[in-house]
Amino acid sequence: MGEFDLIARYFERPVRRNPLGVGDDCALLQPAPGMQLAVSTDLLVEGRHFLSTVDPRRLGHKALAVNLSDLAACGAQPLAFTLSLALPRVDEAWLAGFAEGLFALADVHACELVGGDTTGGPLAINITVFGEVPAGQALLRSGARAGDDVWVSGTLGDARLALEAFRGTVSLPQEVFEAARRRLELPQPRVALGCALRGVASAAIDLSDGLAGDLGHVLRRSGVGASLPLALAPQLLAATAAGLQLDAQRVEEFVFAGGDDYELAFTAPASRREAVLDAARSAGTPVTRIGGIEAAPGLRLLDARGQAVVRKFAGFDHFRTSPAHDAG
Amino acid sequence: MGEFDLIARYFERPVRRNPLGVGDDCALLQPAPGMQLAVSTDLLVEGRHFLSTVDPRRLGHKALAVNLSDLAACGAQPLAFTLSLALPRVDEAWLAGFAEGLFALADVHACELVGGDTTGGPLAINITVFGEVPAGQALLRSGARAGDDVWVSGTLGDARLALEAFRGTVSLPQEVFEAARRRLELPQPRVALGCALRGVASAAIDLSDGLAGDLGHVLRRSGVGASLPLALAPQLLAATAAGLQLDAQRVEEFVFAGGDDYELAFTAPASRREAVLDAARSAGTPVTRIGGIEAAPGLRLLDARGQAVVRKFAGFDHFRTSPAHDAG
User: Fold this and answer.
1) pLDDT tens-digit readout, A291-302
2) What is the pLDDT of residues A260-284, one digit of tens each?
3) What is the ipTM of this complex?
4) Minimum distance, in Å, between the CA of residue B79 and any CA atom of chain A
5) What protein family does this chain belong to (chains A, B) (predicted)?
6) B26 vs A: CB within 8 A
7) How far apart are CA B232 and CA B306, in angstroms?
8) CATH class of the region A3-134
């Protein structure tokens, strides 16, 4: 099957929300009056971002989910996406599964595939996603101010827990492993929460590389610092919150530097706590207040006595050999 | 050097035309009132779309040029782009050269880099480009009508000539080779022509896979056919137009199925010939009228007596082993 047949069979669907979709030189988008278009792009490479053995349905889901998570972090409503695929061979069962997982998530968010490119080559997936946000209301990394609270959505570190189980560095009961594996392979982008936080949160970021590293971007862009108690870790990791016993330092590492969480970390003025909780309720997404923004730059991790301690967590970096992602 | 340092050093530049660029979860674009956003994406993989030995400046140019060519084919004015890079290693000289070639072309078209992603992996480049076009005025593949003329811009087949010289299947004088190599490595997207053809052309496409295959997309989308004389080939190939002697069938193959031309093929009513020539003059881009659109579907290639003849030109397909692009 050639490139054009492949596109037509698996990836060409009529558009409803956008003026022109797959099949011409360009797609056409038209944001509603007063809206800005939020754009993000993510490149996933086999062996770095996913295991070669992953279910193609889950891979299709995840490839779009990690992009939708960026829209969520800006408070943008999904609108459309493009898909570029490099494939070592044309494997119809794989393509059918990939398309199924991709479109299932796309349909949940009314996010239409409007264009793309396919080529032979080592397996790689690039999605560029487009969302709408009212002009001037996008959540940015730069808006955190001293006195703000720091919040996170959902639970953190379970994706990393699953990866460590795959590697054999931790042994998990089957049920715990399956739940953690779903967190790794089927992340749920927090789109509803991101949109509900417009006008409430002062800054936001999605957690792809680990809380410490990603929150660090917010702190640098905002010119502020934060303190977070390490003791929060066991309650933020779903598996330990549910009773799993794990070495405390590993739990801290998974929660603060695990990667692949695709939750939101955000800041909001202390005066808006009720508004944050209302947004979380309206989105059906749990949130936890984990610390506060301070004027002194840098991220401080606090021990049980409230003393800042040194941990060698590094923000995840796809160029370094990383325990979190170099999973091939 | 890690991912974030790399982005900051080579790819983070302030935006002027767009509300928000590199450095947050999303970029923000805001098309002017009444404008639609044209979007296209191209994935280039080493060994398929470019030789591993290519000058990184030329590769940076070409990676953006092939995307701008899609905007040109829609009559859209460039606005912004995102860049995803998978790199086997961090080679600063290569990155500096790539960025130089990329931004030189971007600056010509006032097209701003607004976001991207970088990762380790086999060398691959994905650019998604954004342009503005007045709502309802985009040039589409579907607008050709019987009686329209068929036109092409510039010259065709010289990129393929250079590729064949690299392969040793043709021997060229040094000057001819260098000129052809520039066509292969430094394609010039026909942005000014595409914009000037708004309201004049009835359909358009950019020529990436060869005239016969790409014009075939226009014919199918428009439900029409066309006849083109094979005898046009020597005058459309710059090298033979300038006096190079080549086997006639090879010239036909290079011109009709060469690939990598990044010229525009377009149709326009016969009544608009003067308007087409005015658009070409205003854009500073030569155009040639090469045939006519007919009601009977399919592309007919005509011999010197006006008889349709069979040629085994295939539209280029990045999944098949193709002489035009499988250049590793």
Assistant:
1) 999 999 999 999
2) 999 999 999 999 999 999 999 999 9
3) 0.89
4) 13
5) Belongs to the thiamine-monophosphate kinase family.
6) yes
7) 12
8) alpha beta
